Amino acid sequence: MRICIFLLLFSLIAFAQADADRVTVFFDFNKSDLTPEAVRSINDYLSAGKDVEVSKILGFCDWVGSNTYNDSLSLRRVAAVHDFLTKKQVRIRPDYEQKGFGEDFTQSEVQSENRKVVIVFSPMEKLATPPKISLTERIRQAKKGDVIKLENINFFNNSATIVPKSKPVLQELLCIMEENPTLKIEIQGHICCQSKADVNDVSTARARAVYNFLIRNKISRNRMTFKGFGISRPLFPIPEKSEEEADANRRVEIMIVER
Q: What is the mean pLDDT of residues 106-115?
């Protein structure tokens, strides 16, 4: 029985070494609380900032006490490590493996080396990027009152002049308006980065620029309105913390008025 368990443990450890990092923390006799040294070991590893997540937490005990008690103690040690990692907001895989070996493994002659938990950190699994839904499809699925962001509509700094690379989005919107003659929309402009107000009414000017493009291409005025919201509806608090947040706030959207 011990040989089988040893082989299982060896295979687990060998697999972990192949594609992951291991951190081993040790416990006081008959205790399941993390020692200051254990906390320091985990924090030292996390401070490296590796892009990893927890895939396994394996608990072990020395041979003192009954087998049943040591099985329970090893699981309590696993739980203590899990709780600590959770409080540190370390990502743990939903299907992570937790196992208590108790005393059923090849023991070291040094008792203190057997009272431990092995944490296996594996490379972060990349989440599948959902397929992008085209503007045409988003509008087709939209209901009256829905608001849809026009992706990749960009303007020159502090102006309503649309940059050339945004033209494909405008052309797609034009095709949608041509192919859906009963569709009516409100074009809504938003800006970023200003803490007080849209001093030069840039958000309205940008919404008007999209409106004028559609007018020039023979879309009826009766099917469209435009409005600037300034900084009144930011997606992220102002001042933004990054250029990505600023880009998200600096946008043009359309609201479905009638289908």
A: 93
pLDDT higher than 70, residue 127: no
Residue type, 91: R
What average pLDDT does this structure show over 246-258? 90
Range of the domain at 168: 135-258
In this structure, which amino acid lies at residue 70?
A: N
| Contact of 167 with 234, CB cutoff 8 Å | no
Q: How far apart are CA 90 and CA 249, in angstroms?
A: 30
Cβ neighbourhood burial of 6 (10 Å; 0-12, 13-18, 19+):
middle
Please tell me whether the peptide bond between 239 and the residue prior to it is cis, using omega within 30 degrees of 0. yes
Three-class DSSP category at 103: coil
Looking at the chain, the whole-number percentage of residues with pLDDT higher than 70 is: 90
Contact yes or no for 256/139 (Cβ under 8 A): yes
Calpha distance 129→139 (Å, rounded): 21
Q: Mark 85-109 as b/e (b = at least 16 C-beta within 10 Å).
A: beeeebebeeebebbbbbbbbeeee
Q: Are 162 and 170 within 8 A, CB to CB?
A: yes
The reply to whether 156 and 95 lie within a common domain is no
- Give every CB contact of residue 195 below 8 A, 6+ residues apart in sequence: 231, 238, 239
CATH of the domain at 48: 3.30.1330.60
For 135, 142, 144, 172, the CA distances from 259, given in Å and listed in that order, are 15, 9, 7, 17
- The answer for 80, left when phi > 0, alpha when psi is -120 to 50, beta otherwise, is alpha
- Which ranges of the chain would DSSP assign to H, the alpha helix? 2-19, 36-46, 67-87, 135-141, 167-179, 202-216, 243-249
Residue 159 within a domain: yes
Q: What is the pTM of this model?
A: 0.52
